[in-house]
């Protein structure tokens, strides 16, 4: 059996995407991973796979605290991989996650409430946005903007940019 060599420290660290719902974390993360030749991990998708149901059903059946607990444990696990890791929009609410992000390359995809509302529309997939989507996004951004700023090592504006333009802006600061 061969002895595994220690991975290169920089290559072993994930590139992490944070930002509000509709900022493009899942879309941009997938494309960025393809360009960088890295695995793509979407925390929400892994949570759904493990729970065996969509996030909206986890919220309804078990409540938001149960979702947040799954989100924290899954996020901490996926941050160990040399991947592109897209977090859920509310992950930064967790002190534990914010601490874990301190020594990572964290890209904050910035979006206005108006642009995010246009992107997510009336989709029922995001339970926290049900009802007045734009109003809820304004509330979420007011609460979370300081938290995204706290963890970010790179900020990229996404309003008026296509996903590929956002990927290019991220790549300007991320080495393969
Ligand atoms: N830069 C962009 N411009 C326009 N639409 C976008 C952009 N980024 C993502 N979208 C679209 O917005 C919606 C939400 O994107 P998504 O990647 O799921 O965001 P998040 O994971 O941050 O909630 C999707 O329909 C996606 O195709
Ligand atoms: O903002 C939030 O608190 C949430 C955002 C969602 O992810 P996206 O940001 O990918 O939509 C998902 O994790 C869940 O619905 C909660
Ligand atoms: Mg997403």
From TrEMBL:
Keyword hit for Cytoplasm: yes
Pfam families cross-referenced by the UniProt entry: SKI
Binding site for Mg(2+): 26
Reactions it catalyzes: shikimate + ATP = 3-phosphoshikimate + ADP + H(+)
Broad EC category: transferase
Residues that hold substrate according to the record: 44, 68, 89, 144
Cofactor note: Binds 1 Mg(2+) ion per subunit.
Protein name, entry field: Shikimate kinase
Organism: Microlunatus aurantiacus
Primary gene name: aroK
């Amino acid at each position: 059996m061969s002895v595994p060599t220690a991975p290169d420290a920089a290559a072993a660290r994930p590139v992490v995407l944070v930002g509000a719902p509709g900022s493009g974390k899942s879309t941009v993360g997938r494309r960025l991973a393809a360009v960088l030749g890295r695995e793509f991990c979407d925390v929400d998708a892994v949570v759904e796979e493990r729970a065996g149901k969509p996030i909206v059903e986890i919220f309804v059946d078990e409540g938001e605290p149960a979702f947040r607990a799954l989100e924290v444990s899954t996020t901490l696990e996926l941050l160990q991989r040399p991947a592109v890791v897209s977090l859920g929009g509310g992950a930064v609410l967790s002190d534990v996650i914010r601490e874990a992000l301190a020594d990572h390359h964290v890209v904050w995809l910035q979006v206005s409430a108006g642009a995010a509302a246009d992107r997510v529309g009336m989709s029922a997939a995001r339970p926290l946005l049900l009802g007045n989507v734009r109003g809820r996004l304004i509330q979420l951004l007011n609460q979370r903007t300081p938290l995204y700023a706290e963890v970010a090592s790179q900020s990229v504006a996404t309003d008026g940019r296509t996903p590929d333009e956002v990927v290019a802006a991220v790549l300007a600061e991320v080495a393969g």
